Amino acid sequence: MFGKDKYKRFVEIGKFGNITESYKVIVDLETGVNYLNLFAGYGVALTPLLDSCGNVVISSATELREIKNREL
Prior knowledge:
This protein is of the alpha+beta class. It has one domain (10-71). The chain contains one helix and four strands; from the N terminus they run E-E-E-E-H. It has one helix spanning 61-71; strands at 10-17, 21-28, 34-40, 43-48. A four-stranded antiparallel sheet has the order 1-2-3-4, with no helix packed on it. Strand 3 and strand 4 form a beta hairpin. It is globular and about 35 Å long. The mean pLDDT is 91.
């Protein structure tokens, strides 16, 4: 699982923030679930990314293929 293989299950697809806090959007290439990762000071949080209706954001099969091709 943590060897030197080239397969990456989780890929960062977005990043923003400033010197004191940063946000990353990470996608799980197996399930398509998007996660929001927050780093602020000494704190870290990881949560599924939700849309305006409160549903978990899941990337489509087409989006996952594009992400995988970009990562190769």
